[in-house]
Design a protein that fits this description.
alpha/beta; transmembrane helix; membrane; six-stranded mixed sheet; Trimer_LpxA-like_sf; transferase activity; globular; transmembrane; 4 helices; UDP N-Acetylglucosamine Acyltransferase, domain 1
Length: about 180
């Protein structure tokens, strides 16, 4: 049931301050990407190891939702509520080895992935993090709370401290 609670938080993040823009929500690509992820994650948690067989049947639905939304969020990714995607037409990719806390903001063209050959490792992102346009996180990495990643930055190392701004390739802390 927590996925529905997280979906409610996602909807509130997408609507912003004006809660009466519900009709705009239905025209928002990010909504369909997040709805698809939350439904996919819910059925994965419900069915457990049998999910891989059920996914064969429902994969056309998720493929169409992915085409509509340009969001490829793996069902094994553990994402808390309040994710906000500003420009999903640029594409969003989130790996299944991601653990993301509340209130993540993605600006568009973002990739959160893990290097090949790192089995068992994961990407951990704290609360209130913002990723600028076309920025990427290539793990395994751990990021603290209130991290802001600038546009076109590429994070490849750990930044466990809070309240940092990361810029450049590879990303370095900007004070």
């Amino acid at each position: 049931m927590s996925q529905f609670k997280y979906l409610y938080q996602d909807i509130n993040a997408l609507l912003g301050r004006n809660k009466y823009r519900v009709i705009l929500l239905l025209l928002n690509r990010a909504f369909y990407g997040l709805l698809s992820y939350r439904l996919d994650r819910f059925t994965f948690l419900l069915l457990g190891s049998n999910y891989k067989y059920f996914r064969i049947i429902i994969s056309p639905f998720f493929f169409i939702m992915q085409l509509i939304s340009n969001c490829d969020i793996h069902y094994r990714a553990d994402i808390k509520g309040g994710i906000n995607i500003h420009h999903p037409s640029l594409g969003i990719v989130i790996s299944g080895k991601s653990q993301i806390s509340e209130r993540l903001t993605l600006t568009g063209g973002n990739v959160i992935g893990i290097k090949s050959g790192f089995s068992g490792s994961s990407i951990k992102i704290g609360d209130n993090c913002n990723l600028g346009a076309n920025s990427c996180i290539i793990g395994p990495v751990t990021l603290g709370n209130d991290i802001r990643i600038g546009a076109m930055a590429c994070v490849t190392q750990n930044f466990p401290n809070n309240n940092l701004t990361l810029l450049g390739v590879p990303a370095k802390s900007k004070i």
